[in-house]
User: Fold this.
Amino acid sequence: MSEPDARKIRLLMELRRAGISDSGALRAIEKTPRDLFVGPGWQDRAYEDSALPIECGQTISQPFIVALMTQALELNDRHKVLEIGTGSGYQTAILSRLARRVYTMERYRSLLREAQKRFEALKLTNIVALAADGGKGWPDQAPFDRIIVTAAAPVRPDVLLDQLKPDGIMVAPVNSEDGQHLIRYRKHGEEIEEEMLADVRFVPLVEGLARGG
Assistant:
C-alpha cells in the first residue's frame, strides 16, 4: 500500500470516529485524491484532518467539515446541486460523485480554471462551472434540490433559499453574534426549518467577481 493510500485510510477512520456515518459521503471521499486539490507544497499534509491554504488567499476545508456538509445534504443521484464557492474543487468533486449534476460558482476566475483542469483529469463530467457572484445564486438554473455554501454569509442567505426546491436542503455557514455556525435549512413550503450542525470558521462570502482573479 502506498503512503498516500495509508494516510487516506487513516483519515477515513478518523472521520468515522468523529461521527460521519453516511456511506456515500465516505466512499466519495475515498475516491477523491485530496492531494490533487491542495496548494503547492502541501501534498504531504493532504490527508490530515485540517484546512489548508490554496491560491487567492482561500482555503481547502477540513475533511471533517467537507464530510459533515456532504452528509447533511442527504444526496442521491437524482439531485441537482448548487455549490457556492468552488475553491480548489475538492468539495465539488465529492458532490459530483453523489449527485446527478453540480452547478458550481466561484468569484476567482483563476481558481475556477484550475478546478476545471482537475475535474477533467478525474473525468468528472457532470459539473457545470461559472465565474460569478455566488451570493446571487444561479437564477437561470434554479430551482435546485440541494444548495451548499462554502463561505460564511453575514445573515441567512434568503436569495439562495428562494432558489431551493420545496423539500430541498441547504447547508451554509452563517455569522452570528456568538461566532460562525454551520446551519442546515430544510424548506417546507413557505416554512424554513433551521438546524445548527457545528461551530465553524470559513472565509467570508464576498459580493462580486474578484478583480484580476
Observations:
- The helical segments are 3-17, 23-31, 63-73, 90-96, 109-121, 158-161.
- Residues 147 and 192 are 14 Å apart (CA to CA).
- The first strand starts at residue 52 and ends at 53.
